[in-house]
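Convert to structure. Protein one:
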Amino acid sequence: MYNIYRDEDYKWIRELLTYPQTLEKNLNFFENTSQITIPDDPIERVIFQDKARKAIRKVAQNKGHLLLVGKPGTGKSLLADMFNHVIDKSLGDYIRPKEAIVGYPGKDQNHVRIAYANPEKIEEFIDMVNRNIDHAKDSIEEFSLDKQIASLKKVKTALLWTAGLSIAAGIFFPPAFILTGLSGIGAIFIFMQENNHKVQEKIQQETQSARSANVKHLLDLVPEILHDPTKDSNLMIRISEPNSSNMKGGFRHDPYQSGNLQTPIHKRAYIGAHAKAPIIYIDELKTLVKEGYMSSLLEIMQNKKYILEGGRHTGSGAADRSENYLKADNIIIACCNHDTLRYLQEEGDGAFLSRIEDKGEIIHMESSVSESRENISQTVQYVKQEIDSLSREFEHTWGTIIEKEGHAGVRRRSEQIFGKKLPLNYKLRVREFSRNAVAEIIKELRCRASDRKLSCILRPINGIIKTAELEAIIENSEFVEPRHIRNALREHTSLEGAVSKEIFEHKKDLKKYITSMTDSIGYVVGLAVIRSRASGQMFGMPLPIHCQVNAGGSDIITAPGKIGEIAKAAAENVRASIKKLLYRVGAPYVGYEMHIEYIQAHDGVEGDSASVAMNIGLISDYIQHPVSQKYGITGSLTGEIILPVGGATEKVRSIMDTDLTMEGACIPWQNKLDVEPLLINTDFEYIQKEDVPGIRIYRTEGKRDPFDIYFCKTKYNAYSILMGLSKEEVEDRITERSKRDLAFMKDMKMFTAEKSAGPSPPEPH
């Protein structure tokens, strides 16, 4: 039998076994992370992004713009902060605003005049003006109603005398009592008026509103400092939701629009990021696109100035605007993902991108980097940085408690948090990572990428490092060890990871049930992944598939359920490959109905990585030969060749759980490098089944629970592993089946013809 593998192929597989020693050699510059020093240069603390670091230094030299494009978690925000740091240290004293922005009354109540002035001088000037106005206000005579009150007292006294005299006269002349009543009522009314004047006088004297009203026209002319650079020394303003209000500025609503109490326009004006900060960091361009601010930003980037306008179409502020321009010579730093980049390329023929490239650079953030010694060293540095960050967090949260209550108090409080007793010598201090623990982090970065690369999406790894730290602290271990990392990986998962874990538990029971209930003919265990939208991480799981081939009828293939376009095309490709095989072996052609079912794949299937699994399932049912349910398989089938697929490491790792009772997997030959991270901190050896090379990994200490991974170049290699049949045996059995089907179809046609012709007439005697 022809062997498609060459001697070099077997050599390459054996070389994979040296990967742990190679990694150990690249990590031999330290025993634990306490020996690692963090660079003083903040930009060098951003790992894996060498191209971006160089671009930042270059763009900072000429005050250019930056657009950082990449997946979440690759360090875009961190690089923007580092750019700000570099500019601050190098050109900060030169580009930092030195003039205050001052608003003056304009030509009418809807216009404001903008001026730039020395902050100290303008503040002194405004203080002087306010002092003079206060002096003028104090010079105004105190509010008094003494004259009105004195006249009322005279009238009251006269009425009281009249009432007294009328009482005396009434003794002798009774009608005089009428005058007594009228005089008494009048005295009471005058008394009330007198008290009302006294209260009004007191209120006016306490509030001095009369004085303020007299000088209001002067107060309305006092300039307003809209921005004082001495009170805001930051070079960069971070904008999370760019719109006209927080980028340009505007005019606040005036609640006192009537009664001569209007707030002057220059006291209602406020300015935005363009006028205040030399550097504007737009955290996510997608929000800018949604807000419709792109056209304004392009205009300001071009002209470096703008008119301050009211942002409302109607109501207060609709007609407000500045008489002159505000300066806006900004450095724009923006971040976006790839979907927003596609929009920017189309919007205005890429006008925004053109302005960025004109005086700056568009930086594509690396999503994965090669596993070189330099990048491994950067990974170690990154772990050390996270350890130091956690140490600062502990100090910030627990520092006062440690100072007042000691570590015993921390232990007592921590026991309330964790709900269990902690060791008596428990101390809340960070643990350094051992060399093997760092190797586990590198293993995880390798598993989340492919083709011997490390993933650059580091934000999810931060949580894993911190969770592992807490595991080691609770255990009171001297160092963080690989077991702590593995426990952290089980506990710290994304939303998609949690969903994947739940689905995996269901698929585990489903797979066991199918295996126990069927003869395994037409059934095959494919491998699938769920990809996290947030982190890009992939989570593998088994994908049971059932295939069935029926002779006769139209030559079609059906795959029910929510199956994507790529998966449909893969199914059609499988049908074409089987038809080609029938033609090549000279088997009589018969029409076949091919049915493919992804068992309980409720959320649908997309991609072509199950095409080789579909092929094996169809061939199994066609030749009525069982498929081993102890092996999973993944690969993209093109003709006879199995091509590489994404997420191979995660797919294999997902079925290595001993509870699943799987014994191995078949993966494409070109995915062989994706097995390397699975060899870290474990036992393994080279294996070979017939011509197909592989690696056996022991899942349990003491070289127990072996798991075999085979590297297949063609579908015939997969046939030999999963069905134990050679290429010749498969082709012979296909030929036999097609001949039987052809004979069956002929018999059916004859039977149908005889039945349609009816009974023969009786022969004459």
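Protein two, convert as well:
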Amino acid sequence: MSDKIQIIRNFKEIYMNNIKKYSDYNDSLYQINNFNSWKENLIQRSIVIRTMFKENQDIIDQIDEILTEGLDDDTAYEFLLVIKEFKDKEIHDASIMIKIINYLIAFYEPKEKYEILIYLYTLGALEEMEFFLRMDNDSVDINPLLKYQKILALKSKYQELNEINSRRDIFIAYYNLIGPLADLNANVRKDIIKYYEEVTNFYNSDLVQSIDKDNEIIKEEMHLINDVFITSFSYFIDSDYSTEQKYFKIVNSLLETEEVDDDQKKLIELAYKYSYGEYDVNEMIAKLTYFFNLYLGDGIKYEGTDENLNRFCNLFDIAGIILELLRTSVMDPEIKYSYLKKVGFTLLDYIKSVPYKDFTSYFDDVSSSLYKSLLPFCENLDQKVSLLNLLVLRRQPITYIHSIMVKKITVIIANEMLEYDRNMFKQLIDLGYDTDEKIINYLGNAALFHDIGKCLTVGVINLQNRKLTDEEFKYIKMHPSKSKLLLGDDPAFDSYYDVMLGHHRTYDGKGGYPLDFDILSSKYKIAIDLIAIADSIDAATDILGRNYTTGKNFYTLLEELKEYKGTRYNPEIIDFISSDEKLKKDLDNVTGRDRASVYYDVYKEIIK
């Protein structure tokens, strides 16, 4: 066996074992008995995961070297075995998978290994879609589209594809172009009808029918394609009249011939008839009332069974159709508002009933979109804050803990600054925060919200078992700009947007990101400066949650902060911290010995 083959096999074994170990240690944090034993477990977890981090990175570096040197038949085959096993074991480290897949594609394309290539195109596109899944719509680049187009270009080879999975993957490509990828990219979305007509003609062609006329696997894929096309109606209700007519003409024919789920069929028929004016607003309200009472009226609670989860998935799809019908209707705004709120919060109650250990990626995605859609229905800022805390808490415990820590650090420093000289916050006082309580409340909320944009980049933020790739770091740097996208320019957060956008800009305005945010002209610059310092203090001293850093004690870090005062950090705040012995001691305690108790409280909250 060659050294390269051994390294590839070592990589598979080490990486898979470490991912399981990582998962087991994370799960152990949800088994709370008492603080002392839990803290010991947290510390042990940190030590083990740091070792894993280095071990993973060392073997990844060796894999990178093999890939860049070039593949041969043996190493390519070995990498194929790796990605197949990763897929079978549902290991989705997109950056690692995509890199290996792209090298394999480049190796096999000149050899015209069609079945291998279709497998690689399919898996590569799925991994790329997963990478972008939690970004905002339309942020997906063209790579998945190009891979699906390469699959479609091999339709003429259908007869040469001996593996049924390879033939099925052609239909899976169409399914994703009509459904999931269309959801993620507007350029794909505009071609839904074109792709549907293509796949229908292809399925009915002599080429396919001569081979797979009675094949139940291919029949089922075509059924799924019909289903996802039918449920794409929301893209066409607001489109030009001719496109809308064309879509609903196809759908109307499908509803007569296709075995559509009865619940969805009734709702699609409602959308179709409402769009064509067969129902007036009063009939629309009456029918939506019926559907709500039928499917969501009694609510639904998590029971820990697959049947229960499937029922929720069906209800979520149905609720999505109801919400879309409500959104596009011209009914009275108050009636529309009451139904949107009723449907949305009924779904939220279910999600809140699912224990964190069972919170799959599906619920992760559902919760993000649902919380975002529910923000406009919260009646005041306190309700919105509670909803946002739930969003971060359920999706990203480490980000939530970081935000809590940044808030604690910010408030500790701000209280000392107010006691020393309130004029240090003159900028905020002039904006109407004219009492100490108002200043502290504002700064506390601003610290809590500063990283909210990470909820749209969760897939890459929480990788702590290896170094981030350049691509991942590029998307992480987008999280300040994602804040407004998540919050929808909600005016309730107007006073916080500058902190969200500016906390990674440097004090002097010459560095950091995003570069298009002018920190020097911000009315809230003192808040940005303070929270940027608090952010750095927590990040650099965290040895329990951030497994990619060795961590520093507060006093060592303070010396580094002093080196960058006037450029990266506000010199007045750094000097103030440096001159206040009590403040330094308090900051050393909260970032050191008291840190575990913050983690403990958050995990208790998650479990509750």
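Residues 381-607 form a domain with the Hypothetical protein af1432 fold (CATH 1.10.3210.10). The chain has 32 helices and no strands.
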